[in-house]
Amino acid sequence: MECPHLSSSVCITPDSAKFPNGSPSSWCCSVCRSNKSPWVCLTCSSVHCGSYRCDDFVVNDTKLGLVQKVREHLQNLENSTFTADRHRKRKLLENSSLNTKLLKVNGSTTGICATGLRNLGNTCFMNAILQSLSNIEQFCCYFKELPAVELRNGKTAGRRTYHTRSQGDNNVSLVEEFRKTLCALWQGSQTAFSPESLFYVVWKIMPNFRGYQQQDAHEFMRYLLDHLHLELQGGFNGVSRSAILQENSALSGSNKCCINGASTVVTAIFGGILQNEVNCLICGTESRKFDPFLDLSLDIPSQFRNKRSKNQENGPVCSLRDCLRSFTDLEELDETELYMCHKCKKKQKSTKKFWIQKLPKVLCLHLKRFHWTAYLRNKVDTYVEFPLRGLDMKCYLLEPENSGPESCLYDLAAVVVHHGSGVGSGHYTAYATHEGRWFHFNDSTVTLTDEDTVVKAKAYILFYVERQAKAGSDKL
């Protein structure tokens, strides 16, 4: 059901001044009867909500594409302004040793090609994850080397068009829009890229992220990786992209971690395996289970939760090793988590311990900074010390003797940081290293930074890349 007057619509919120038919709660979607975030047409008073059930969300464009034309015109003006501003800043920063647009490397001058991502309305959570993934070389290169897929035929083929809700699900590909976004981020042709097409696909296939509310960056990352994995398994346009992965021996040769079916580049790079070991405290029966993972979620130990900065004097600083030790230490399960012992034939008290059976090529560590207390989800603002180089994971392995001297060392590639007090508010930014230099990605703004600034960040998600054998040997 589609309103012909999309350009004249308004979102109904509790802060709206007056309503002809009473309070906002009396307005509901004409399709699914939901009153959650309804939209009303100012011309014909048709109301829709954009929920998953009716799949009818407002894109705010007319059938003649008038809003699109305005967007393109404004974008051209903005690009010309950014270009002029970039040339001016480049001349001012030429003599700077850190924040310079031009840098000499091995005797030749190279330019900074980093591109920001425009905020489309509380989309900093998405921007921070995309910038982090774009700086994981193996992962990013795989997608950038995929052949382009043309989703449109006829008159619109080869032209950039804005999606409207009249297009069906067959016209969207998360892999393709993700590929386009990654290609745009390091071309250096613009200072900021607008990921509108990718965000449209996210709305289409991930209903939890529809709307313009602040979202959890970690939750978005997991949904994104899971959906990329599923789409790559299915292949697209008659070509199985899993087959492309099999041709890349560097990725597929050592990959043994499969999540939900066949292996893809997602599991080949982020996939690891945990061994979950549970022991009955009554009869001593031991149960072992192997679980694949794409990331590890680590608690911040309670004894460190009042330590909000590195220089604060009250007590020791929490380190990433403390969080990893808390994750892998032997734990006695409480009364709400009694283990069903097959030998005792009933639920018994037990202990649990995690071992890492297989480490991934890229180790993604999520620090659990948000937790529920009564009716609120509060943030743990504790500073956690983390290494830039040489994170040694050998002591957490199930069989460390079978690992080489360098295979357990990891170097930091990217960090996602949450600024603010709650998961539904605040702001996300990211730090990432590219060709030996650290960058700070704050939506459309990208700046060079240094290691001292990075290590002071209150990390939320850390991306560590497996060290190659030729690198140094400094350890955590």
From TrEMBL:
GO MF, any single term: zinc ion binding
Superkingdom field: Eukaryota
Catalytic activity as recorded in UniProt: Thiol-dependent hydrolysis of ester, thioester, amide, peptide and isopeptide bonds formed by the C-terminal Gly of ubiquitin (a 76-residue protein attached to proteins as an intracellular targeting signal)
Gene field: USP3
Pfam family, one: zf-UBP
Protein name: Ubiquitin carboxyl-terminal hydrolase
Naturally occurring in which organism (per UniProt): Lynx canadensis
Organism placement in taxonomy: Eukaryota, Metazoa, Chordata, Craniata, Vertebrata
Homology family: Belongs to the peptidase C19 family.
A cellular component annotation (GO) from this entry: nucleus
Gene3D superfamilies linked: Cysteine proteinases (3.90.70.10), Zinc/RING finger domain, C3HC4 (zinc finger) (3.30.40.10)
Annotated InterPro entries: Papain-like_cys_pep_sf, Peptidase_C19_UCH, Ub_carboxyl-term_hydrolase, USP, USP_CS, Znf_RING/FYVE/PHD, Znf_UBP
GO biological process: protein deubiquitination; proteolysis
All copies of domain UBP-type, residue ranges: 1-107
Keyword line: Hydrolase, Metal-binding, Protease, Thiol protease, Ubl conjugation pathway, Zinc, Zinc-finger
EC number per UniProt: 3.4.19.12
USP domain ranges (all copies): 115-467
Function: Deubiquitinating enzyme that removes conjugated ubiquitin from specific proteins to regulate different cellular processes.
